[in-house]
Automatic annotation (TrEMBL):
Any Pfam family hit: GerE
GO biological process terms, semicolon-separated: regulation of DNA-templated transcription
CC terms in the record's Gene Ontology section: cytoplasm
Superkingdom field: Bacteria
Gene3D superfamilies named among the record's database cross-references: P-loop containing nucleotide triphosphate hydrolases (3.40.50.300), Tetratricopeptide repeat domain (1.25.40.10), Winged helix-like DNA-binding domain superfamily/Winged helix DNA-binding domain (1.10.10.10)
GO molecular function: adenylate cyclase activity; ATP binding; DNA binding
Residues covered by the HTH luxR-type domain: 927-992
InterPro entries for the chain: AAA_16, P-loop_NTPase, Sig_transdc_resp-reg_C-effctor, TPR-like_helical_dom_sf, Tscrpt_reg_LuxR_C, WH-like_DNA-bd_sf
Protein name from the UniProt record: Regulatory LuxR family protein
Keyword line: ATP-binding, Nucleotide-binding
C-alpha cells in the first residue's frame, strides 16, 4: 500500500463530489456509472478508496475487482472473479448463487467449464436489446447465460441494499471482461447499483481496444466520464508536507522542488520522497518504471526521445529533423508512435513536449555521457546558425553542456539581457551568475563580455536586489570590493561601498551598513559636488540615523540635499527627503505629505524604481500609522502594481508594500483578499517570507487547521534567517493567537517572552511590537489565573498572576523606550494595543473593568475590525459581571456579527459560549431554558455539582439521602450525554444551563 493511501485526500474535492453524486443516485434507487480516467500515479486508486469509504458510510455494499496486465491471452473475466469472490465466501448473502453452475464456475475462475468462451459474431451487439430484463434476448453466442447470471446476481445483491461495483485498471481488461462490462452498463438501468471503472488515460493509444468501448459507453444514459487531472501545485505541496511530516519534515525549498518535478503526480512525488533524493538524480525504482514504457517503442522512436530529452522539455520538429540523424519517413513514423502512446504531446505552438517532466529526466539519465555531450554540441550548433529557433538561454545551456565555455559565457550574458528586458530579475540573476561561474575558465572573458569582472559583479548584485535576494546581493558586492582592490578608481570603490551599505541595512545589519557608508564618504571629496558623493552622503545620512548618530546624519542630509539640487539628481533628492522625514516622526502631517508627494514625483521623473518604491511605501506607512487604512491600501495597491509591471515584485520596498497590503486588508476585515494577496505569487524569496507568513493572521483567526503547517514553515525560516524581525513578529503573533484560542497559556507566554527578547535585541529604539505580543498573550494567561482563582488554587493563581504582570511590564517598558527615542508619536494601532493591555491588566487583578474594555474597543475602531470585535466580546463579559445584561447583549451581538462575517470560528464560538452562560440572545441562537431540560431538583443538584460537592454533601444540603442524590446525578449525566461529573458541568456551562452567578 502506498503511504499516500492512509493519509488525507487532498485536491480531489470536486471529483469525489461527482462520484458521490452517483452513489446518491444508487441510494435513491437508480443505476448509473462513472468512467474514471487519469494518468498512472495521479491518484485514481486513492480516490476510489475514499469513494468506497464514503459509500459504505451511506449504506452501500462495495465490491471491487482489479484488472492485471496479462495481455490479450490473460485470464478471462478476472476482475469479475475478483469482485464476486466475497459473495461466494458468504453463502447467506445470495443463496441462489450457490445453485447457479455458471456463477460457480466463474467464481472458481473456470468460466469456460460452463459455457464456451468465444467472441461474438462479427457485427453482433450484445448491449442493444438488453436494456431491460423483459426485452427479447439476443442471439446466444455461448456467453449470454454467464452475462445474465452475473447481472442477476448483482440485482439480487442490490435488492438487499444499494451496491457499488468498482473495476480498477480496465485498460488491462481482457476482451471478455470488456464485453461483460458493456452488457452490465446497458442491462442495469433500474437497480440501485453504481458502477465505477477506472483506467489509465496515458495507456490508451490509438488502437487500444478500450477506446471504442469508452466511446460507446459514454453515450449510454447515466454514464459519465470523470477526468482526474494532475494535482494542483498547492494540493500536491500539502500532500508532500504530510508525507514528509511522518519522517521528520522537509525544508520548504525541497517541498517546492518535489512539487515542481512531480508535476501533479502523487506517485512520482512519493517516490522522490521515499528515495530521500530532492536534487538532480531520480530514484532507481522510478527510473525503471518510466523507462519501461520507452523500451517498448521502436528504435527510431527511442532515438527521437533521446534527442528530445537533450533538447529540452519542448522541442521543434525542425531541430529534431536536423540533429536526429533519422530519415524523414522514419521521423514522421516515430513522432506518430510517440504521440499515440502518450510519451510526447503536441503543444499549442506546434512543438513537441514530454508528457511528464520526469519521463525526460529518466531518458536523460539513461544516456551515456559521450552521447549526451555530442547531442548538446549538435543542438548548440543548430541554434547558433538558426537564431530564431531558440533563445539565448537555450544556447547557453547547450554550449555549457557540450563544454563550449566561451560560447556559454556569451550566450549567458545575452540571456541575462533578454531577461532584464522582459522584467524577469530572478532569471536575469541566474544567467549572470552562470556567466560569473564561467569567468575564470574563459581567457578573454572581459573582451567577450564588454566589461570587467567587477562591473559584472555589480550588475549581478543589482539583479539580486531586484529579485529580493538581498543576502546574495551583499555577498556579490563584497566580492566586487575584493576584485577591485585598494588600487582601483576611488569613485568606483565608493559606489560599491554605499551600494553595499544600502543592501546591508535591509538585512538588519545597521552597524555594518554605517561602516560601509563611512568608507564611501572617505573615498570621494565633498567638493566639487559629484553624483557619487551625493549618493554616498544620502546613504550615509540614512545609516547614521539608524545607529543613532544624529549630528552626523544631519550634516550628511544637508550636504546631500544641496548637492542633489545643484546637480539635478532627483533620485538622490527623493531618497534623502524620505530619510529625513522618517527621522522626524513628530513633524507637521501636512508638511510630511507635501514632502513625500514631491519625493514621489522626483523619483518617478528620475526613473529610479527603487527610490520610487521607497516613496510609495512611506506614503502608505504614514497613512497606516495615522489610522487611515483605506488610504494606505490605495498606496500599497499602486506600489505593488507598479512593481509588478516592472518585474520587481520582490525588490525590498515592493515586498514591504505587499506585506503592508496583506496586513491592512486583514485589519479592514477583507480576509479573503488578505489571504489571497499573501499567497498571490508562487515563488517568494526568503527575505520576503513575512508576506506569506502574514496570511497566518487570517488562518488562525478562522481556525484553519492548515495554520499549524504554515507556522512550522515560518518557524524554520525564523531559525535560519535569525534577523528577519518582521517575519519573527508575524510568526510569533500568530502562534500566540493560536495558543490563546486553544487555551494554552504556557505556550503563549513562552512565545511572547522569546519574541519580545529578540525584538529588544535587534531594534534598540522601537519595541512597540511588544504591545501586540503582550496584549494577545495576556488573554490566555489571565484566563488561567481566573480559573485558578475560582478553583481555590492559590499556587496556580500566584504563578499566573506573576506571569501576567511580567507581560504587562514588558509592554510598559516598550512604550517607555519608544518615548525616550521618539517622544509621544505612537501610531493609532500601538495606542489601541496599549488600551488592550490596560484592560487585560485589570482583568488580571480580578476587576472586570468594563470602562477599560470599552476604551479598548473604541481604540480599535480606527479600522481594525477583528480586534474591535474581540474587545467587544470581553466588554460583554465585563458587563455581565457588572450585572448589565442589556449592555452585554448589545456588545455580544456586535462581536458575533463580525465573527460571522469574517468566518472567525474561534471568536464566534467564544461569543456564543458567553451568550449561553449569560443567557444572552444572539441572532439565530435561542436561549435554552434549564427548566425544559432539568427538573427543579436536578437544577439544584447541578448547581452543587458545579460547586464540587460530593453526593453525600449534596444530600446533606438538600435534605435528601445520599442514594437519592446519586439518582439525580445519574439522571443529569444521562440527559446531558456526559460520561462523568466534570464533563456534565462543562456541558451544562456550555449550554447555558448553569446559574449565571
Amino acid at each position: 500500500m502506498s503511504r499516500w493511501d492512509d493519509g488525507p485526500l487532498v485536491g480531489r474535492t470536486e471529483e469525489l463530489a461527482r462520484l458521490l453524486a452517483h452513489v446518491d443516485r444508487a441510494v435513491g434507487g437508480r443505476a448509473s456509472a462513472a468512467l474514471l480516467a487519469g494518468d498512472a500515479g495521479v491518484g485514481k486508486t486513492r480516490l476510489l478508496r475514499e469513494l468506497g469509504r464514503h459509500a459504505a458510510e451511506r449504506g452501500l455494499r462495495v465490491l471491487t475487482g482489479h484488472c492485471v496486465d496479462l495481455g490479450d491471452v490473460g485470464l478471462p473475466y478476472l476482475p469479475f472473479v475478483d469482485l464476486l469472490r466475497p459473495v461466494a465466501a458468504d453463502p447467506d448473502l445470495v443463496p441462489a448463487s450457490r445453485e447457479n453452475p455458471v456463477l460457480t464456475g466463474l467464481i472458481a475462475g473456470r468460466p469456460g467449464a460452463v459455457v464456451p468462451v468465444r467472441p461474438p459474431a462479427e457485427g453482433q451487439d450484445l448491449s442493444g436489446p438488453l436494456r431491460h430484463r423483459a426485452a427479447p434476448p439476443p442471439v446466444d453466442d455461448g456467453r449470454l447465460q454467464l452475462f445474465e447470471s452475473v447481472a442477476g446476481l448483482l440485482c439480487e445483491l442490490a435488492a438487499n441494499g444499494p451496491l457499488l461495483v468498482v473495476l480498477e485498471d480496465v485498460h488491462w481488461a481482457d476482451r471478455s471482461s470488456r464485453d461483460l462490462l458493456r452488457y452490465l452498463l446497458a442491462r442495469l438501468t433500474d437497480e440501485p447499483i453504481v458502477v465505477v471503472a477506472s483506467y489509465r488515460a496515458d495507456d490508451l493509444h490509438r488502437r487500444h481496444p478500450l477506446r471504442p468501448l469508452l466511446a460507446e459507453l459514454v453515450r449510454l444514459p447515466g454514464v459519465e466520464r470523470v477526468d482526474l487531472a494532475p494535482l494542483p501545485d498547492r494540493a500536491l505541496g500539502e500532500l508532500v508536507r504530510d508525507l514528509a511530516g511522518r519522517t521528520g519534515g522537509l525544508p520548504e525549498h525541497d517541498v517546492d522542488d518535489v512539487v515542481a518535478r512531480a508535476e501533479g503526480n502523487a506517485f512520482y512525488a512519493e517516490e522522490l520522497l521515499a528515495a530521500g533524493l530532492h536534487g538532480e538524480r531520480l530514484p532507481l525504482a522510478l527510473t525503471d518504471v518510466l523507462l519501461a514504457r520507452v523500451e517498448q517503442r521502436s528504435p527510431a522512436a527511442q532515438r527521437v526521445l533521446r534527442v528530445a530529452a537533450v533538447a529540452g522539455r519542448r522541442v521543434r520538429h525542425e531541430l529534431l529533423a536536423a540533429v536526429g540523424e533519422i530519415s524523414p519517413d522514419e521521423l514522421e513514423q516515430a513522432f506518430a508512435e510517440l504521440v499515440h502512446h502518450h510519451l510526447l504531446v503536441v503543444s499549442d505552438d506546434g512543438r513537441y513536449r514530454f508528457r511528464h517532466a520526469l519521463l525526460r529526466e529518466a531518458v536523460l539519465a539513461d544516456l551515456l555521457p559521450g552521447e549526451r555531450v555530442r547531442l548538446h554540441a549538435a543542438i548548440a550548433g543548430y541554434l547558433a546558425t538558426h537564431r530564431d529557433a531558440g533563445t539565448a538561454a537555450e544556447r547557453a545551456h547547450h554550449a555549457r553542456e557540450s563544454n563550449d565555455l566561451p560560447g556559454a559565457l556569451g550566450a549567458s550574458l545575452e540571456a541575462a539581457s533578454d531577461a532584464r528586458r522582459l522584467g524577469a530579475p530572478a532569471e536575469q540573476l541566474q544567467h549572470l551568475e552562470s556567466a560569473l561561474a564561467l569567468w575564470s575558465a574563459v581567457p578573454d572573458a572581459a573582451e567577450r563580455a564588454g566589461r570587467d569582472q567587477a562591473a559584472l559583479l555589480l550588475e549581478t548584485a543589482r539583479a539580486a536586489r531586484t529579485a529580493g535576494e538581498l543576502h546574495r546581493a551583499v555577498a556579490l558586492l563584497r566580492s566586487a570590493l575584493q576584485v577591485l582592490g585598494p588600487e582601483a578608481d576611488a569613485e568606483t570603490r565608493a559606489r560599491v561601498h554605499y551600494t553595499l551599505a544600502q543592501a546591508m541595512v535591509r538585512v538588519e545589519d545597521e552597524f555594518g551598513a554605517h561602516r560601509e557608508s563611512t568608507a564611501a564618504m572617505a573615498l570621494v571629496p565633498a567638493h566639487p559636488p559629484s553624483e557619487v558623493r551625493t549618493w554616498a552622503a544620502a546613504t550615509h545620512a540614512r545609516m547614521s540615523y539608524a545607529v543613532g548618530r544624529i549630528e552626523e546624519a544631519e550634516a550628511a542630509v544637508e550636504e546631500a540635499l544641496a548637492a542633489a539640487d545643484a546637480l539635478g539628481l532627483d533620485g538622490a533628492w527623493s531618497d534623502i527627503a524620505v530619510t529625513q522625514l522618517r527621522a522626524k516622526p513628530g513633524a507637521d502631517p501636512e508638511w510630511v505629505r507635501a514632502r513625500l508627494d514631491e519625493a514621489l514625483l522626483r523619483a518617478r521623473r528620475s526613473g529610479d524604481l527603487d527610490v520610487e518604491m521607497r516613496a510609495l511605501y512611506n506614503l502608505a506607512t504614514v497613512a497606516f500609522e495615522a489610522g487611515r487604512i483605506d488610504e494606505a491600501l490605495g498606496w500599497t495597491r499602486r506600489g505593488t502594481r507598479r512593481a509588478h509591471d516592472r518585474g520587481s515584485d520582490w525588490s525590498y520596498y515592493a515586498a514591504e508594500l505587499r506585506h503592508l497590503q496583506v496586513t491592512a486588508l486583514y485589519m479592514t476585515g477583507n480576509w479573503d483578499a488578505s489571504l489571497a494577496e499573501a499567497d498571490l505569487l508562487a515563488r517568494v524569496p526568503e527575505i520576503a517570507a513575512h508576506v506569506r507568513a502574514a496570511g497566518l493572521l487570517v488562518m488562525v483567526g478562522r481556525g484553519d487547521p492548515g495554520a499549524r503547517e504554515r507556522l512550522d514553515w515560518a518557524h524554520g525560516l525564523v531559525s535560519r534567517l535569525r534577523a528577519h524581525i518582521l517575519l519573527d513578529l508575524v510568526t510569533a503573533a500568530s502562534e500566540i493567537d493560536l495558543a490563546a484560542w486553544q487555551g494554552n497559556a504556557q505556550t503563549a507566554l513562552e512565545v511572547a517572552r522569546a519574541a519580545c527578547r529578540r525584538l529588544r535585541e535587534e531594534w534598540e529604539d522601537d519595541h512597540l511590537g511588544v504591545l501586540r505580543l503582550a496584549g494577545t498573550a495576556l488573554a490566555p494567561v489571565v484566563d488561567a489565573a481566573t480559573s485558578a482563582r475560582r478553583a481555590g488554587d492559590a499556587g496556580g493563581t500566584e504563578r499566573w498572576v506573576a506571569a501576567g504582570e511580567e507581560l504587562v511590564g514588558l509592554a510598559g517598558d516598550a512604550v517607555d523606550t519608544y518615548r525616550r527615542w521618539w517622544g509621544d508619536t505612537m501610531g493609532v494601532e500601538a495606542t489601541a494595543w496599549q488600551a488592550r493591555v490596560a484592560a487585560e491588566a485589570a482583568r488580571l487583578a480580578g476587576d472586570p473593568a468594563p470602562e477599560l474594555w470599552r476604551a479598548s474597543a473604541e481604540a480599535f475602531r480606527f479600522g481594525h475590525v477583528y480586534e474591535e470585535a474581540r474587545s467587544r466580546w470581553r466588554l460583554a463579559e465585563a458587563l455581565l459581571a457588572a450585572d448589565d445584561r442589556a449592555g452585554a447583549a448589545v456588545e455580544a451581538r456586535s462581536a458575533h456579527d463580525v465573527a460571522v462575517r469574517l468566518g472567525a470560528a474561534p471568536l464566534r464560538a467564544a461569543v456564543e459560549a458567553l451568550a449561553r452562560r449569560g443567557r444572552l440572545e444572539l441572532p439565530g441562537h435561542r436561549i435554552v431554558d434549564a427548566a425544559a431540560v432539568l427538573t427543579p431538583r436536578e437544577q439544584s443538584v447541578l448547581a452543587l455539582l458545579a460547586a464540587g460537592r460530593t453526593n453525600r454533601q449534596i444530600g446533606a444540603e438538600l435534605y435528601i439521602s445520599e442514594k437519592t442524590a446519586s439518582v439525580h446525578v445519574s439522571n443529569i449525566l444521562a440527559k446531558l450525554g456526559a460520561g462523568g461529573r466534570t464533563e456534565a458541568v462543562a456541558l451544562a456551562a456550555a449550554r447555558g444551563l448553569l446559574p449565571t452567578a
